[in-house]
Amino acid sequence: MGKKGPKSKQKRLEQEKLAQESALRKERTKTIIAIVVGVVLTAMIVCAIVIPIVLSERPTYDLADKKSYTVSKTATNYVKLNVSYTDNDGKKHNGDIIIKLNPESAPITVANFQKLVGEGFYDGLIFHRVIEGFMIQGGDPLGNGTGGSDQNIKGEFSANGVNNLIKHERGVISMARSGERQDYYGNVIDYGYDTASSQFFIVHQTTASLDGQYAAFGHVVFGMDSVDGIADVKTNNNNKPLREAKIESAVFINYTE
Q1: Gap between the Cα atoms of 141 and 92, Å rounded
Q2: What number is the average pLDDT over the span 189-215?
Q3: Each residue of 35-67: pLDDT tens digit?
Q4: Backbone angles phi, psi at 37, to 5 degrees
Q5: Considering only CA atoms, which of 218, 252, 192 is closest in space to residue 109?
Q6: Phi, then psi, of 229 in degrees rounded to 5
Q7: 202 vs 57, 100, 132, 134, 144, CA distance in Å?
Q8: For the chain, first and last CA: distance in Å?
Q9: 26: which of 45, 135, 206, 247 is 20 to 30 A away, CA to CA?
Q10: CA 170 to chain CA mean position, Å
C-alpha cells in the first residue's frame, strides 16, 4: 500500500472541518428551536392566566358626581337604570338612576325585580304614567298601563298581612298593582293585592297614603335629578308623556354609596 500524500491529508482535514461546521450548525438550530418553543409555551401560559382574569373584570365607570361603579354579571342589590327623556324645550337628556333594593323588607318583590332585570325585561320600556309631585311609573311592555310579565307576585305590604315598614317617601321605588274589583252589586270580590307583576313607580314627592297599600322595595341613591326631569315633562290626559321617556337599559352594578 502506498503512502498518502499531502493532498489526501488536506482533503481529510477539510472534510473534518466541514463535518464540525455541520455539527455546529445543527446544535445552533436545536438551540434556536428550543428558545422559540420556550417563548411560545411561556406566552401560552401567560395568556391562559391573564386573559381569563381580564375577561372576568368589569370596566369601571364614573358618574357625574365622580362616584364609580362596575357592572355585575350576577344579581346585586344595586340596579342602574339608564334613562332618556326630552324636556319641554325639546332638549334630549340621558342620565342614570341607581336604586338600592331592600330584600329584608320585600324579599319576593326584590327577587321578582332582579329576575326581570337579569332577563333584560326593562330594556327599552317607557315611563307610561307620569304625575309631577306624585310619581313616575314604568315597566309595562305594552306601554299603556295594562301589560306586565308572565307572573303576578304576592303584595308585600301591611294591608296584605306583610310587615313592610318602608314608607313612600321621595325616591322610594314601589310596585304598581291593579285596584279592587267589584261584582254587579258593588261587593268587592278582589282587592288586587296580589296583582303586581313588572310595573313599578318611583315616588317623586312623599305620599303617605300609599304606605301599607303598595309594596315598596328600595330607594334611589343616585339620579333623583333624572327622576325630577321626567316628572316635569308635559303629559296628555292619561298622564302619558307627550315626548317619550324611556328606560334605555337596566343592569346590576357594584356600587359604594
Answers
A1: 23
A2: 93
A3: 776 676 666 665 665 555 444 445 666 666 657
A4: -60, -40
A5: 218
A6: -65, -45
A7: 31, 12, 11, 9, 17
A8: 103
A9: 45
A10: 24
